[in-house]
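Hello forum,

I keep getting stuck at the same step: I have a sequence, I want structure tokens, and every attempt I make locally crashes halfway through. Rather than fight my setup again tonight, could one of you with a working pipeline run this one for me? It's a single chain of 340 residues.
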Amino acid sequence: MEITKETRDRIFAAADQLYEQAGRESFPTVDAVRKQARVNMNDASVGMKEWRRAQTAQAAPIAVRVPEAVQQAGDLAVATMWQHAQELANESLRAAQAGWDAERALIDSVGEQTSQAFDEQTQELEGVRLSLSGVQGELEQSNALNQELASQVAGLKESLAGMTSTADQYRARAEEIDRRANDLRAELDHAHRVGREAQAELERLRDSLDQRNTLIEALRSELATVKAHSEANMTAHQEYRQEAMRDAERAAQQIEQVQGERDSARSELEKLRTSHAILEERAEAAAKAGDSMRETQARTLAELEQQRSATSQAREEAARLQGQIEALEAKAKPKPGAKQ
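Reply #2:
Ran it on my machine without issues. Output:
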């Protein structure tokens, strides 16, 4: 049986490697070489026979008899040399015979190892066959289990899809609620800020009204003084009358200034009315936000009531100031028939 050169090289390389690993003390077995070279048993058996023959083969020449020419020309020395050569040749023959015997013994050993390896391989194949049968049964059970798991996974995927859709809806609703809450919170913060600004404006207006009241009182006192002075000194010197007239003109200018401040106060009151209207609209929008904003709405309404009360007081104060200014203007006008 012939084997390919590639297979022979693999077998020889595996045998040499195993032989070196054993310290060159014993030849490797056919089964070990088969596993190392990864070939079949027949190729391993044939290759190992060639490898073992290469390890034990020795060249030994075989001598026959002395040629006739040598016998005719030989002498005692030549005969002696020939006898030694004969002995050497016989020793070579005996060595070759021993090598052949050893090779035969190796061949028999290889045959036994091959037979044993075939038996071991048969047992291994039987074990593999049994293992394959068990694995096939387990594989069938695994396939059935995989089908069941696939069905469960499909059901879980459907449930997960439904839950994901529901979660997305809840998330969208939560985001919308958060957005609305943020908008309402911003509106309320703005309403609080505007309320604080309106309160500060009312305080400033109240202070301004107090200052105007003080000024009006001073003007009243000064006009009363001028009037009394004018009536008591009607016939006095003309220069004094001119001075009184100048005082009256200054009082008139101050009255005009007060009237300008009154107009400014009216403009500020209109701005406050607009601001309060905006606050009322925002309070109504906040009232529609839901039950969660009721407490905030109540606080906002309370603040609006306070601002309304403050605005009402400011209006009353402005009306009172207007009445005082008008009365002051009426007093400052010269009476018909009065001397200039």
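DSSP finds seven helices and no strands in the chain. If your local run keeps crashing, start a new thread with the error log.
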